[in-house]
Amino acid sequence: MAIIIPTISSCSEKITAGEKRLARILEGGLSDKCTCWYDIPIGDKQHHPDFVILSPDKGLLFIEVKDWFVTKIKSANKTHIHYETKNGIEPLKNPLEQVRQYTFKTIDSLKNDPQLRQQEGDYQGSFIMPYGYGVYLSNITRPQLEKHFNALELQEILPADLIICKDELNEFMTREQISARLISLLKHNFPHHTTPQQLDRIRWHLYPDTRINPSVTHVELHTFTLHAPDIVCIMDTNQEQLARSMGPGHRVVHGVAGSGKTLILLHRCVDLANNIENTKPVLVVCYNITLARKLKAQIDLHPLRIPVEVTHFHAWCYQQLHSHGRLPPKGKNFVERMEKALTEAYEEGAIKPEQYSAVLIDEGHDFKPEWLRVLARMPDNKDNALLFLYDDAQSIYQKKKALDFTLSSVDIKAQGRTTILNINYRNTRQILHFASSMAFNYLNNHIEAALQYQQPSAGGLTGHYPALACFDNQDDEITHVLNWITDQRQQGVAWSEIAVLCPSTYSISDALVPRLTARKIPFQMIVTGNDKKHWSPQNDLLCVMPLPSSKGLEFHSVAIMDAAKGREEEDLSDDIKRLYVGFTRARHNLLVTMHGSGKLHDHLKETYEKSEKIV
Prior knowledge:
Layout: E1 3-5, H1 17-29, E2 35-38, E3 51-55, E4 59-66, E5 73-76, E6 80-85, E7 88-93, H2 95-110, E8 131-137, H3 142-148, H4 151-157, E9 163-165, H5 175-183, E10 186-187, H6 196-206, H7 237-244, E11 250-255, H8 261-273, E12 282-286, H9 289-299, E13 308-312, H10 313-323, H11 334-347, E14 358-361, H12 369-375, E15 385-390, E16 418-421, E17 423-424, H13 429-444, E18 457-458, E19 467-471, H14 474-490, E20 498-502, H15 506-518, E21 523-525, H16 529-534, E22 542-546, E23 555-560, H17 573-583, E24 586-595, H18 599-610
Parallel strand pairs: 1-2, 4-8, 8-9, 11-15, 11-16, 12-13, 12-14, 14-15, 17-18, 19-24, 20-22, 20-23, 21-22, 23-24
Antiparallel strand pairs: 2-3, 3-4, 5-6, 6-7, 8-10
Helix pairs in contact: 1-5, 7-8, 10-11, 13-17, 14-15
C-alpha cells in the first residue's frame, strides 16, 4: 500500500467524495514505495495541487480532482470552465491548465538543484525522473464526456491523454491496471534510477516545513530559490504522515530516543500557530530549561500568526502563580511549595482552564501526574488540542518508573489516538548499539516484566563504533578529551556541534575551564540555572553541560566525561538512564571516558568489552 499524507481518515472535514475515492485507489493500488500527498501546499505555498504522487520507479505526478457533473458544464475553453453551482453559473479555472502550471513551475524550480538534474544523455539538464500531470473527473465517464463535447473541443479543452474519467480508474482494478493508467500521464518516459538521497532532496524542496536542517531560516522556508545543502535532513515519510494527520483532541506519541518526537512537536506547533481558527496562544512546555531554549530557537525560525509560549514547567508554574497572586514566599522547598500552590490554585478556580488554543508537552515522562492534570485542562475546549510525547527510558528526574499512572487518570484522553515510534534515526547504528547494550540489559533485569523498556530499532546511518577510554586520574582524562575535541574541530565539525557531557559540571568545572581557555577553545559552561537560561544552540561555542540538561538536544560529536561517576547506590538504574540519555545525544561520534573505579565503571567496561562491535 502507498503512504498517503495526511491519512485519509484525518481529512474527513475537507476532502470531497471524489478526492477520497482517488485517495483510496492510490493507497490500495500503488506500491509501498510510493508516497502520495493530498492537499498540501508546495514550495512558496502558492501551488496547491490536490495530489502529488512520488514513485521512485515511475516518476512524479500532479493530479487535480473535480467532482463535476457533465450536465452542469455550460461552456468551456482552454482557460475556464463555466459551471453551474448553487450560486449560479461561475467561470472556474480549467483544472488542466491549473495543474499544468503547478507542474511546470515546480519542475523548473526542482531543476535549480544541480543534484536533481540529469548530467548526460538525451535529457541532459532535465529533471532526473519522468513527470506528468492530469485531471481526474470522479463523476464523469468517458462516453459522457465525448457526448457533451465534440472531438475538436475535447482536444483543445480536456485532451484524452491528460484526463482520467470515472470509468477509467476505480477500486476494482488490479494494481497493475491502476499503475498503468497513472503512468500514461507521464510524458517522455525514460529509464532512470533515483537514489534515496535524491528522493529526499525532492521532498526537501517540495515541502519546506519537513526540513530539519538547522541552518534554514524562516525567510528560506517558503522559497524554491534556496541553495540546498549537499546533504539534506528531512522527516521520513512516517514522521511526516503522523505530523500532518493530527486532528483535534488529545494525541499521544510514545517514541524511543532519536525517533523524531520533537520534530513532530515542532511541525504540529507551527501548524497550530498558523491555523486561522485559533485565537489564543499555543503553549509548548517541557521539563528542562535547555530543551525549552532549543525549542524556542527552532520555533522562532518560523513565521507564526499567533504567539507561541515556549517554557519549562517550573517557569510556567511560576508565571501562572505570579500573575494570579498565588506565588508562595521564597524560602526552603520553594519549588515543591510552588508545585503544590499551582494545584491548589487550579482546584479553587483561581487559575482558569482553557487558556491556550493548544498545549504540547515534550519529554512528558518527567512530569508528575498532578502537573499533567492541570495542563490537560489548558487547551481551548473548541478543539481540545493536546499533544503529549514521552519515552520511559529517558525518565531521569523522577525517583520512579516513568508514567506509573494511566494517562486517563490525569485527564489525557487519547484512546485510539496513540502512536508508537520505535525506530531511532538520530544516532549511527554503532552508537545506538553501544547505548542499548549498556542500558537495556541492565534496566530490564531490574524491573518487573510488565514495565520493561522498549528497545529502539536502528534506522540511522553507519559510522564509527564509539570509543571508551579509561584513565588513572582526571588530569589524563581531560587531556584525552581535549585532544579529541581538537581533532573533531580539525575534521570540520562546528564548535556548536560538539558537546562535553558529564554527571556534574560542578565537579569538573574548576579543572576543565582553565584547560579549555589555555587551548583557546570557545566554550559555554552550563553549571547554574542562570547558565541554562542563557544557553543558546545558535552560539558557535563548545557546550559543556551536565547529562540531565542534555535531554532533548543533539550534537554531531559528544564526549561523555567522568562517565563512571555514580552515586554509589546498589541499583545503578538511575545512573545508567542518565548515561543512555547522554550517549544518544551524539549523531555521529561518541567518546566515553572515565577514571577511578566502582560498579558503574565495571559495568561500562564489561559492556564495552563484551559488545560485538558492529561495523
